Amino acid sequence: MGDKYLIVIVEDSEITLYKLRAILLRLGYDVSAHNRPQNALDWLASSHKTPDLIISDVMMPGMDGYTFIKTIRANQQTAKVPVIMLTSQTDLKDKVAGLEAGADDFISKTVSPDELELRVKALLSRNKEKSSISQSTSKVISVFSLRGGVGTTSIAVNLAVAISEQLEIKTCLWDMALSGGQCALMLNLKPKNTLASLADWPEGSIEEGLLSSMILEHASGISLLPSPQFFEEGDLVNRATVDLVWTPLLSLTPFVVVDAGNHFTDPVISVLERSDAILVPLAPELASVNATYQVLRLFEEMGIELRKVLPVVNETFQKSSLITAKIAEGLKKEIFAEIPYDNVNMVRAINQGTPYLSLAPRTSTSQAFGKMAQRLLEKVNEFEKEGPAEKPVLKITKDKFQRYF
Ligand SMILES: Nc1ncnc2c1ncn2[C@@H]1O[C@H](COP(=O)(O)OP(=O)(O)OP(=O)(O)O)[C@@H](O)[C@H]1O
Ligand SMILES: [Mg+2]
Fold this sequence. Notes:
Layout (H helix, E strand, L loop, with lengths): L5 E5 L3 H13 L3 E5 L2 H11 L5 E5 L7 H10 L8 E5 L4 H10 L3 E4 L4 H22 L4 E5 L8 H14 L5 E5 L7 H4 L21 H7 L1 E2 L5 E3 L13 H14 L2 E5 L6 H9 L2 E6 L3 H17 L6 E6 L9 H8 L5 E3 L3 H10 L3 H4 L4 H23 L11 H7 L1
Parallel strand pairs: 1-2, 1-3, 3-4, 4-5, 6-10, 6-11, 7-9, 7-10, 11-12, 12-13
Antiparallel strand pairs: 8-9
Helix pairs in contact: 3-4, 6-15, 9-10
Bound molecules: adenosine-5'-triphosphate and magnesium ion.
């Protein structure tokens, strides 16, 4: 297809047709020119191409411009393509009929090359914004552990800040630790409206505006979709809530980091299943390693691709008898990242409601967060290039795990 924009022109006056074509070719666009609407429809059907813009005359033999646009709009392949109508006179009635048929803009047949260029560029850029959103190339990274207190929330918060600040990708932190989520507290934000208000939502979708009203902006540049405020409201969020939120959230932000907490609940599973990668934090102690082993085993049973599951050793205490290489050997899984111990700043960060990364940006712990964010982005891009895995990457058996330790 090439990466040039493709513009289809339909105009029965060949002089106008070739004049417009010449201008657009000079501007670097690919042009497919037709002197009858039916020829254009036939060409679209046989080429299977979806143009980036269609320019159509109104009065044409065989089929008028209004019917042509309605046909374009009724076809899934071309329903969303912007259309400019060519008018010979600036008759309001013609414009109303054009708008009703689905036209996006009008230009006079005697348009100057400069004006044509401006109008075409304006429509193309508007449409590109729309399509990049609807194709949803947004990425979702979840942080999940089956053991509490291993730094799941600290990692989610600081990963979101690292992606947003250092990699300059707008990032939303989604607190899915539904009962007792701590992200708002860690960022010193006060939620007003939360996902709990969507319980028993009567329709199959929500407006982006409603979701935006729940999202809080933080000074670090990240935004937060908070968990329900009260512990007992956690149960109000279910798989249906996740379905409601997913598409609008991904169209609002190109990167989402989820604090998925440490409970295998139905809504959490539905987020994990759809995530592009899952970080599994573990502390370097045996109970934590065991919890990680259980996560890997359960994910494998659930059909979650294990290449997307990335264990992170977080040194939540100072001295450890389990070295990372041994943990990796025991889990039969590479350790994706190691976060060094820094209890003083970690606790200060929580108590002040400031992300660790903002409070202590130059420590080795902050450097590790930054490096992890960078590697994660590379990994996720790799997964995208590779396409879906054919089969789970490794096979874990309980037997092997117990024998090792
Ligand atoms: N790298 C680290 N160095 C030192 N302390 C850390 C580190 N990471 C986390 N901690 C400490 O571990 C404790 C738990 O952190 P955090 O709340 O992020 O974990 P969690 O797994 O989300 O816990 P919960 O199960 O309560 O949700 C906090 O006191 C935090 O300061
Ligand atoms: Mg937590």
